[in-house]
Amino acid sequence: MKYWGVGTMADDRGPEIRAIPGWGTSWYTRGPTYWLRRVGVSLVMLFLVSLCAGMIGLFLGPGFGLRVGPAPGFVALGIVIVVTFVGFVSMWKRMDREPTSREIDKELKQTAVFETAWNGLGWVVLILVIVGAVAGGVARRSISAAIGTIVVLAFFGLAVWMLGPALAFFVKSLTGEPRPIRLAQQEIDDWYRERGLDSRGSIRPT
């Protein structure tokens, strides 16, 4: 296969078309496979956003919300809005640039802390389940209520933490291309520019 500039053949090999994980070389040809993958990514992100929003709504809705009262419900809603906004803005900025070594180290530490806390919470729930199975009467009902509250709060916190970044990914999937594709396209453009040629007009990053 030969690659062409505008009106001029580049050379016998042409630029190297780099395969991107999850996209292959479809990002270059822009055929049906590429657009199906774009739609698939958007649908997955939409599902994740809907799942997070649904879990948050379930927590703040009439079922749980009426039990905690209106004031705590409004406070929780305010926290959701602030955390979602901060998560959206932070992820949106990070998607368009290369993370620094300091940011990578910070993310690794945060991931380690999150995994430790999540695993610890799992052990707490497991111990409570075992104790509740052995106990009886009022103690068992109290432990069951505690387990339910812990599980609900844990998944509520996870949904709030994920909503902002998931929403940023969803909006980005509709308004532009992933950063790896833009970088690969830039490499193609540079290849043609170094040879005094124009890159293929039909292939442009959005």
List keywords for this structure.
single chain, 206 residues, mainly alpha, two-stranded antiparallel sheet, disordered N terminus, disordered C terminus
Residues in helix, %: over 70%
Count of DSSP strands: 2
> How far apart are the termini?
26 Å
Helix count, DSSP H or I runs of 4 or more residues: 7
The general outline is elongated
Largest sheet: 2 strands, antiparallel
How much of the polypeptide forms β-strand, as a percent range? under 5%
User: What is the H/E order?
Assistant: EEHHHHHHH
Domain count: 1
> Which stretches are low in confidence, meaning pLDDT under 50 for 5 or more residues running?
1-11, 201-206
Q: Mean pLDDT score, rounded?
A: 77
Structural class: mainly alpha
Radius of gyration: 25 Å
